[in-house]
# Entry
Amino acid sequence: MALNNVKETGVLIVGAGPTGLALACDLARRDVRAVVVERAATLFPGSRGKGLQPRTLEVFDDLGVIDAVLAAGGPIPVGMVWRDGRRQGEHRMFDTPEPTETAPYTTPWMLPQWRTQEILLARLRELGGDVAFGTEVTGLTQDADGVTAELSTGATLRAAYAVAADGGRSTLRRELGITMSGETVDPNPVLVADVRIPALDRDHWHMFPAAEDGGPYTAICPLAGTRDFQLTAQLPAGTTPDLSLQGVRDLVAARTHLAADDVTEVRWSSDFRPRAALADRFREGRVLLAGDAAHVHSPAGGQGLNTSVQDAYNLGWKLGAVLRHGAPEALVDTYEEERLPNAAQMLGLSTRIHRGEARRGAATRQLGIGYRDGSLAVDTREDLPEQESKPESSQALRAGDRAPDGPYGLSGEGTLFDAFRGPHWTLLAVGTDTELPPLDGELVHTHAIPAYEPYGKGLFLVRPDGYVGWAGTDARDGLTAYLARCGALRTP
# Structure
């Protein structure tokens, strides 16, 4: 995809990682014109973010890529601890609950980041979009109506909004003067590489603890759907990692029972120092930050890529509502309002897991993330029981919570997720025959279902990103005003 001369678009997305590609897919299905530019010549080639959490699988279900994701990946393997060349026994890093009616995906799924990106790019192309590779933003100015970007191709691009999804070293974030506050999680550098080791079995995530407590760890994890392993090796502070084939071979031979020649290929290698950092704000005028450009995580617990995809999913419908359906521009302000606190929460969790202060459990699956305290959570029901603001701490569904799945759908067949799938809103009349106002059937799909325990009874307006926006017992208690605020009121 080449960009030349002067072009106009709805959204400029800078960066073709999982964040930028997920956002581009969501905008494309909303018929919002978006241009994705990526300074590299190709997609990122490494496995880095290899674990997809259950909430991300739900997002991918809605975006139309879940079949490809499930076909290309596999479950997270059980750990196998080694010492002195002998297997010491299995180690389970997290619980594996069974799927339920309300949550069809309950455990993480292994998929190398490069494969996730390939799947999202293929979906984007199906939807009519593409990526301009080898294209960098060399200058950006903005005014009240949009942004003007100068590109390395010589082209000029005018867009209503720009989204910086260009990673933890985001050029756009620095140019905007947005700082990141954070801390070094661990002073020890970590080498990560995708390697071929035919001599090692692929049944386990192989773990090689240091001979002394507190020493550097080594782990070799088979990457589902490939012949590769991901090697991660913590190094002593102050060490400069040797990322060459011989350097990786020597490290593996020194820390495991494997011989150096057992590593037959290094397909990708990199190094990093675990840190946690959060942008002071996620918006500057018409430019928004998403993904690693807004928050940088320790890889412990597998939250970074997943939190980034949630950013894209939250932002996509809001930009679509403003640009396609006339929603007030203030709707975009709720992106930072909702996502910044959640990113901060996930950063804290990642850091605690890295330091051994927390276990990979329900919180890492991200099904409990919600927006109850945000301005888009409107609950008009009376006499609700007093409870904490955290969705996972209660049984009663409230506005701002993730909308559960269930065995009900169109004509009593399918599931609620089948009804939610797509760029529309969904109004559920659960166990009630209360009168509903006339609504645009394209923007808001309405379904009446019997009383269902996870919901109880009443009216539940489910946002395009799968969260309950408005809840009540009578549509006259602000439903139409809420829809107008979100650009979904257009009457038939």
Remarks:
- The domain at 378-485 is CATH 3.40.30.120 (Glutaredoxin).
